[in-house]
User: Which sequence fits this backbone?
């Protein structure tokens, strides 16, 4: 994968996307996208760059917002980042585009209490059935 | 025909770790399967946020009971990148040596579990006996058979002298003979082939859709291996083949893994031969400057990925672990559909599940 | 009065309960030991099977709710009784407790009873694994039993007698040499009958836990184990008589005191053969066994019968 070309194509498609400089690079490039652009961007990656391998999805509660990171990989790493404000914690599911994302999205749902719209099977996966102490990876949830 | 629901797990002789599969069966044919995880969820990701970078190493070692070293390697690699540390070459080589020995032990362990589950105890006994050779070497090097505690941020805490290296190399010769014998068995034993060929097939297309990694992907003809695709020292200076097989069934996975064991042995020999002089580690600072990093490694089961975000304190702000077993689990309903009850153990063991890894 | 005592002795001591249980435990141990040595292990000490049996006998005996307790209690006894009865007609070391023309058929029938009891055991104890294991045992029964019976009938045809003792006595040359195919088929059939590796499909641990016996425990399970081990012994003795010339050596006349030794050696040879089979192969799938039974074993057995009829005629 030619990371520069991918970044260029993403910047062309979404003028307000941002190539973060904060990341320390082993091999990953981080690109921040507007929330609504996620699915289009993934389709673009599929079609133009044949980039299918989603390594995982990370959700982070930064204290100001919830960031969702989609880590792609094809000989080089590419991470797409979207930032969700606390009052709009929902994101479109990408499971129909990448079936392998199903478990990672379920994890986001239960660990960060983010609604993943259109997920085929949003049941809890890791937490006990009777868990009611809040989403474990959110800042407001106290560590036990 | 009536449908029966058969529970496999959380406790079942087939599973060495808790995981629950509800199989809907018609006669002997599996129609549907429902997976439930989380029986050994320990909340490691959150726990890591409450501990310092140094305290996290023993914790992360316990994500997996088999490939413990590769987890700390990936973690330390990430933290070192964040703090801008340069690990001395000797440290990197020793790390890789442990990684490759761990691959040998993990693959042999897997071969044993698969054979046991398809009722071939003899291979199980042989594989686990031979695995002891590597376990002994790792114990001599680090003091632990499975949890080695070898990595520190900035290098490794073990060293290898010349005499010890010679003794290790002689034992590798014995191990290589045994691996060759196992390979012969897998290629020619008719009952083993009857049980594994055509079972649990994954097409390259399915591998791509489910983002499968590691030996499972390579056994479906998908040529990915982070040791080659993401060459970090010392792998950029070592010669090895990435083993693939086009068949995509459990038999192909067996072949790929055992051939990989042989490759890993070659790698270990090269590492010992090329081992550079110098210190094995550098001192790391307690605080890690702000930043984020994605760290990947090729674990025995495939790509393991750590995402670490630091906030200029001595604790990580977020640490995300994705183990290769996750990618294998998601393919299981597809692999099980239409299989017979007798194939279930073969399919389940064929992908080399590590439930503790997946649950974290 | 003497008759009654004789019968009791035959039933309880030789070749009945005491002798058979001792043999069963000894064979069990030897089997485990041989397998262990072949797999590069040490294996259990000689008293291990006995210790296992005593431990099981002492354990709590529970059954799941909904299981038919009477039937579940009777089934292992029925198996044990039928194996014991069958043993009466099988000569051991040149001695036989009872014999009549046609006892081979009775013995074969008696040896099928444990298989049916095993199937029923799966059904009356209601667990999913039990039912699945029971079904599998029945499927397996249909796969191995026909070739097994056909193979065992060949020495009878060749020696024109249906009495085990007669067949054993009449063999001038061992059945192994005159009916090699029959012997191999009988051996495979026996593996299927005893549910040994690699044909332990009904009790495959990784698939159906412990098969039909999953819900059994304590005394009942101990009886089952004992019945199964005794079945192994009787099966081996049967093969020795039918195919290996009983207690006769090949060219020499055996003095009577040595007969049991010769017989024992032959029995152990078959036991080691069985152990070797279980070390060498992976467990088959039930559909693979059915295919093997009907497409390979049964036609081969038919060929052997035709050859035998031709040879005998």
Assistant:
């Amino acid at each position: 994968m030619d990371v520069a070309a991918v970044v260029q194509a993403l910047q062309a498609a979404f003028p307000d996307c941002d190539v973060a400089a904060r990341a320390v690079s082993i091999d990953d490039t981080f690109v921040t996208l507007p929330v609504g652009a996620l699915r289009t961007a993934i389709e673009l990656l599929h079609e133009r760059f044949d980039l299918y391998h989603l390594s995982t999805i990370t959700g982070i509660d930064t204290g100001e917002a919830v960031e969702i990171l989609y880590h792609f990989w094809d000989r080089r790493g590419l991470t797409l980042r979207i930032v969700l404000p606390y009052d709009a914690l929902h994101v479109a599911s990408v499971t129909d585009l990448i079936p392998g994302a199903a478990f990672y999205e379920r994890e986001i749902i239960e660990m960060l209490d983010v609604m993943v719209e259109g997920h085929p099977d949003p049941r809890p996966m890791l937490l006990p059935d009777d868990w009611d102490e809040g989403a474990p990876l959110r800042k407001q949830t106290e560590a036990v | 025909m009536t449908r029966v629901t058969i529970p496999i797990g959380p406790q079942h002789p087939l599973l060495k770790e808790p995981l629950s599969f509800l199989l809907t069966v018609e006669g002997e044919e599996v129609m549907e399967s429902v997976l439930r995880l989380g029986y050994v969820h320990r909340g490691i990701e959150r726990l890591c946020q409450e501990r310092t970078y140094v305290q996290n190493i023993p914790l992360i070692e316990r994500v997996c009971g088999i490939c413990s070293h590769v987890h700390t390697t990936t973690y330390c690699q990430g933290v070192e990148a964040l703090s801008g540390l340069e690990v001395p070459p000797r440290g990197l080589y020793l790390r890789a040596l442990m990684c490759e020995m761990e691959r040998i032990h993990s693959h042999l362990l897997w071969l044993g579990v698969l054979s046991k589950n398809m009722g071939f105890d003899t291979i199980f006994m042989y594989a686990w006996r031979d695995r002891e050779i590597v376990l002994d070497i790792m114990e001599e090097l680090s003091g632990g058979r499975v949890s080695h505690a070898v990595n520190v941020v900035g290098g490794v805490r073990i060293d290898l002298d010349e005499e010890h290296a010679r003794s290790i190399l002689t034992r590798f010769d014995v191990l290589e003979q045994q691996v060759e014998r196992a390979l012969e068995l897998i290629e020619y034993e008719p009952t083993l082939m009857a049980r594994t060929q055509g079972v649990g097939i994954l097409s390259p297309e399915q591998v791509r859709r489910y983002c499968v990694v590691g030996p499972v992907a390579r056994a479906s003809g998908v040529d990915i291996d982070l040791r080659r695709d993401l060459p970090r020292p010392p792998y950029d200076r070592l010669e090895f083949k990435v083993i693939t097989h086009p068949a995509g069934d459990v038999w192909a996975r067996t072949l790929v893994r055992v051939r990989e064991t042989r490759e890993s042995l070659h790698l270990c020999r090269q590492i010992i031969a090329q081992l550079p002089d110098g210190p094995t580690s550098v001192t790391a600072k307690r605080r890690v400057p702000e930043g984020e990093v994605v760290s990947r490694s090729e674990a025995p089961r495939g790509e393991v990925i750590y995402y670490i975000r630091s906030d200029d304190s001595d604790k990580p702000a977020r640490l995300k672990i994705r183990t290769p077993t996750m990618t294998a689990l998601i393919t299981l309903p597809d692999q099980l559909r239409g299989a017979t009850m007798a194939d279930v153990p073969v399919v389940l063991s064929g992908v080399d599940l590590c439930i503790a890894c997946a649950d974290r | 009065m003497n008759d009654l005592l004789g019968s009791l002795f035959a039933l309880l001591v030789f070749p009945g309960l005491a002798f058979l249980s001792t043999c069963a435990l000894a064979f069990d141990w030897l089997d485990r030991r041989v397998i262990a040595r072949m797999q590069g292990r040490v294996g259990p000490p000689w008293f291990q099977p006995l210790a296992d049996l005593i431990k099981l006998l002492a354990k709590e005996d529970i059954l799941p709710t909904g299981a038919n307790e009477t039937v579940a209690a009777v089934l292992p006894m029925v198996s044990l009784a039928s194996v014991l009865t069958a043993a009466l007609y099988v000569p051991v070391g040149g001695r036989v407790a009872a014999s009549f023309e046609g006892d081979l058929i009775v013995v074969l029938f008696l040896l099928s009873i444990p298989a049916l009891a095993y199937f029923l055991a799966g059904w009356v104890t209601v667990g999913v694994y039990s039912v699945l294991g029971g079904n599998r045992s029945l499927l397996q029964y249909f796969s191995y039993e026909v070739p097994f019976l056909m193979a065992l009938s060949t020495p009878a045809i060749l020696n024109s007698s249906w009495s085990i003792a007669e067949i054993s006595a009449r063999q001038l040359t061992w059945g192994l040499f005159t009916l090699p195919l029959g012997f191999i088929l009988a051996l495979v059939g026996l593996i299927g009958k005893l549910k040994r590796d690699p044909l332990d499909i009904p009790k495959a641990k990784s698939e159906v836990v412990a098969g039909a016996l999953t819900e059994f425990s304590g005394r009942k399970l101990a009886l089952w184990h004992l019945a199964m081990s005794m079945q192994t012994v009787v099966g081996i003795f049967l093969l020795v008589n039918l195919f290996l010339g009983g207690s006769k050596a090949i060219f020499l006349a055996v003095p009577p005191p040595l007969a049991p030794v010769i017989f024992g050696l032959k029995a152990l040879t078959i036991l080691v053969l069985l152990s070797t089979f279980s070390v060498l192969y992976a467990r088959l799938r039930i559909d693979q066994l059915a295919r093997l039974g009907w497409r390979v074993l049964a036609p081969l057995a038919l060929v052997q019968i035709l050859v035998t009829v031709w040879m005998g005629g």
Chain C has one domain: 61-312. Chain C has a mean pLDDT of 84. Residues 157 and 309 of chain C are 7 Å apart (CA to CA).
